[in-house]
């Protein structure tokens, strides 16, 4: 399952992803950010779980299953550059902007800005084709939801 998706993500001319694959790829990016500082906390995992539930209308069991698949996908995915560029080519701008907002929510989940997570965000937003102002707006919206 993951090998086929990874192959499609890294093809020179990726096609739009089916919904299930897009969910998996974008969720894996959330996991990648959460793991960036070497500490994938239970709070980050819970927040990813809640984001997946809200974003895709999943129940608890479906979200838990998807998060587990995303964790495996992230571990098997190629480097962030190729992985993120493939998502950019396969997902609409609005969806990518929403992904940046969700990524900021994960990055800010512990109430502080971590250097590794910040560095990954500075790298990922442009690779997803999301402008600096749109990323900044997404960060403010995420911080507002977190009460920061």
UniProtKB/TrEMBL annotation:
SUPFAM superfamilies listed in its UniProt record: TerB-like
Limits of the Co-chaperone DjlA N-terminal domain: 23-139
Domain of life: Bacteria
Cited CDD domains: terB_like_2
Pfam families noted in UniProt: TerB
Annotated InterPro entries: DjlA_N, TerB-like
Name of the protein in its database record: Co-chaperone DjlA N-terminal domain-containing protein
Organism: Limimaricola cinnabarinus
Source lineage: Bacteria, Pseudomonadati, Pseudomonadota, Alphaproteobacteria, Rhodobacterales
